[in-house]
Amino acid sequence: MNLDFSIVLKNLPLLLHGAEWTVMLTISSLIVGTIIGLVACFGRLLGGGLLSWISTGYVELFRTLPEMVTIFWIYYCFPFAFDLSLSPTGSGIVALSLFAGAVLAEVFRAGIEAVPLGQIQAAKSLGLSEFRIWYSVILPQALRLMIPAFILVVADLVKMSGLLSAIGVSELVYEASILSENSFRYFEFFTVIGIVYFIIIFPTSLAARRLDARFVAQRT
Amino acid sequence: MRVEEPTDRGATRPAIECRGLTKRYGSFTALSDVSLAVSPGEVVCVIGPSGGGKSTLLKMFNGLEPFDTGSLVVNGIALPNTRGELRRLRREVGMVFQSFNLFPHMTVRRNLMLGPVSTGKLKREEADARAEQLLERVGIRDQIDKHPGQLSGGQQQRVAIARALAMEPKIMLFDEATSALDPEMVKEVLDVMKELAHTGITMVVVTHEMGFARSVADRIVFMMAGTVAAVGTPGEFFGSACDERVRSFLSKVL
Q1: Mean pLDDT of B47-58
Q2: CB within 8 Å: A127 and B164
Q3: Which residues of B touch A220 (CB under 8 A)?
Q4: Which residues of chain A are within 8 Å of residue B94 when distances are taken between CB atoms?
Q5: Is B119's CB within 8 Å of A124's CB?
Q6: Do B104 and A141 touch (CB under 8 A)?
Q7: Which helix (H) or strand (E) segment is A150 a member of?
Q8: Which of A77, B64, B96, B252 would be a feasible disulfide site paired with B59, CB 3.0-4.6 Å?
Q9: Which 3-state string (H, E, C) describes B184-234?
Q10: Separation of CA B65 from chain center
Q11: How far is Cα B73 from Cα A105, in angstroms, rounded to an integer?
Q12: Partner-chain residue, chosen from A116, A128, A220, that has the shortest CB–CB distance to B118
């Protein structure tokens, strides 16, 4: 096999541009997803009746659908159904946000529900207000429990953003595809972006595991 | 709704008074027609077999457990009541739990300060001073800047007692405070409770420690199958002429 990694260096600006988009897509969908996730989580925990029903339905739907189906549906079908066309980037962010929201709603809920009932009873028995109980007792403990799972969701989003190459969003996978198609240097480009993904994601999952172990040790 | 306090007979009004309290979980009756009055300054121990409704009753006294029928007035506040009144009630009624329930993410100091500071009872510096003073009293002043996870069970429970006392409650409720402790740590917690009983605070103590009930209680309440089966002084309870069910229970635990 005759490898030539200099072609990667030559096209570095395009690849960097792709990496930039990967990060941008991840951050945007993480922000929107966090907002959706909070609404869905509290809709399920605190809202009664319809709100809880809608939140549960939303979470279950997007945890079941394959990512590609949602991405294609929003890009190709959504404009037909609602007479509103989104750019590839817009569709991509919407799709990723909907996924992130569904998964994060469950991450938030699991964290809150993992705070033992005795903690809430103790806080109530001191005569604390509802706000105080949430602010000083439930949320600080729930947040610690959530952080490791939250980091893993971020890692998943980085990976998932690659799927948006299928609808022409110029992120890392897309740039690598175009460059390799033109040069037939698939091996070089996909090896390099594989390494780039690894460099982005591995430290986060390592951090998640470390934090998890630390919080487990603290609780006992 | 608040029960107005008649100033001339405030001293004789019971600290806790319940009549006909009943609580059902589906077809299971947890409490059936429980009536009891606890006078200010009285130490009442509640004993009896597990599942007899002791803890359920205790948790009703600070509104942690709702009831179906009956009436309950604690420290002049009728239950059930609005959230605001319930908070006011809880600020006067301390509770110590079987599983300590200290806040694991805060130091011992902050555990003790949270209540008084966030309810506006004390300023930060005052609460801090009180925290130190209370920990001195329960004998673990040196642990003040540790997290609960670094303490032994007995130390944690003493912190929990201090945390409840930081609110300067008029009534203290103990829900099997020593049941989760290793045997060698039971004494240090009971000693703190004994010392507290002599200060004139009203105490309701759900316990399996017969020695404690015998030496500290003004009155003992024996609960079984959701009812108050017998009430009496320790002398009456541990003497020979008592209820058959009480004797049968005591013969098993003593």
Answers
A1: 93
A2: no
A3: 149
A4: 125
A5: no
A6: yes
A7: helix A139-161
A8: B64
A9: HHHHHHHHHHHHHHCCCCEEEEECCCHHHHHHHCCEEEEEECCEEEEEECH
A10: 14
A11: 41
A12: A128
Token digits for A98?
């909907």
Pairing of strands B219-224, B171-175: unpaired
DSSP state of A165: G
Q: For residue range B63-84, list pLDDT tens digits in order.
A: 999 999 999 999 999 999 999 9
Length reported for chain B: 254
Q: Which of B56, B86, B90, B122 should one mutate to test binding to chain A, selecting the residue with the greatest count of A CBs within 10 A?
A: B90
| pTM, entire model | 0.85
Q: Which long-range contacts (CB under 8 A, 24 or more apart) does A142-145 make?
A: A142/A108, A142/A111, A142/A112, A142/A114, A142/A115, A143/A111, A144/A215, A144/A218, A144/B105, A145/A110, A145/A111, A145/A114, A145/A115, A145/A215
pLDDT of residue A218: 63
DSSP SS3 for A73: helix
- Contact (CB, 8 A) for B164 and B111: no
Asked if the C-beta of A44 comes within 8 angstroms of chain B's C-beta atoms, the answer is no
A136 contact partners, CB below 8 Å, separation of at least 6: A123, A128, B103, B114, B118
Compute the mean pLDDT over every residue in chain B, rounded to the nearest whole number.
Answer: 91
Best B87, B150, B157, B163 residue to mutate vs chain A (most A CBs within 10 Å): B87
Which amino acid is present at B25? Y
Q: Complex ipTM, two decimals?
A: 0.90
Angle at A186 between CA A181 and CA A192, to 5 degrees: 125
Burial label for B16, CB within 10 Å (0-12, 13-18, 19+), is buried
- pLDDT tier at A56, thresholds 50, 70, 90: very high
For residue A119, give the nearest of B89, B95, B103 by CB distance: B103
